[in-house]
Amino acid sequence: MLLEIITPDKKLFEDEIKSVTLPGIDGSLGILEKHAPLISALKKGTIKITDKTSAKHNYEINGGVVEVLNNKVIVLAD
Fold it and tell me: Which of 8, 24, 44, 49 has the most C-beta neighbours closer than 10 Å?
């Protein structure tokens, strides 16, 4: 599954991943491969990524929006 994290200034991350956990406004969102289509608002918190090599990456955001569609996750972050 492809993940892109984009801010108004630059693209923070773009790579194939195993999973991502996002700070949804109604609670934590866990996304795995072949997830159902989803659009959700995000609150301030940490995006936790596990990439294809099982390495962990964390990014702090102040909010934003996530879209999951066709095995691609796009995060528009503040």
Answer: 49
